[in-house]
Design a protein that fits this description.
By secondary structure, the chain is mostly helical. The chain contains 7 helices and 3 strands; from the N terminus they run αααβααββαα.
Length: 155
């Protein structure tokens, strides 16, 4: 059966109204804004994301952590190995499944994250300059709905 209402083309929408493009561009600028601070502290974006996620959701399985961090499994494994060597995270056997491992942030990892949070927080706040609290709340609520529409995991 033929679709009577095909989606508009990118040419019809335009890049400035194409949400995936805008989200990508925003995150690129956000990451760039904290990159110098990360490099000075010897952290990568992947390590910082991991610390940030574990600060809020400590004790995740490796595959869950990869989803929350938006990092591929192979990169996540290498990142975690380096972070364990640096004493930032620890791996523990899951109490319900001896084959599974959970990842926890260490006190040192939390201290490192706390050192970088001001730059992350300032970069985030800077994105909302000139946007009132109501618009910001609506935007975040909309992002949560979009995530619900596209996610492939229950979290």
């Amino acid at each position: 059966m033929e679709d009577l209402n095909p989606p508009a083309t990118l040419g019809e929408i335009g890049l400035q109204r194409f949400a995936p493009y805008l989200m990508n561009r925003i995150m690129g600028r956000y990451n760039d804004s904290i990159q110098k601070t990360l490099a000075e502290g010897g952290l990568t974006t992947a390590k910082l994301r991991t610390l940030a996620v574990l600060t809020s959701h400590n004790g995740l399985m490796i595959n869950e952590l990869g989803v929350y961090c938006v990092i591929e499994q192979s990169t996540m494994s290498r990142t975690l190995a380096a972070m364990m060597d640096d004493g930032l995270v620890r791996r523990e056997e899951d109490e319900n499944d001896s084959r599974a491992r959970r990842i926890y942030i260490t006190e040192q990892g939390r201290a490192v994250f706390d050192q970088f949070w001001p730059a992350m927080g300032a970069a985030s706040e800077g994105m909302f300059e000139g946007i009132d609290e109501g618009e910001r709340e609506t935007f975040v609520t909309t992002l949560q709905k979009i995530l619900g529409n596209v996610r492939q995991n229950p979290f």
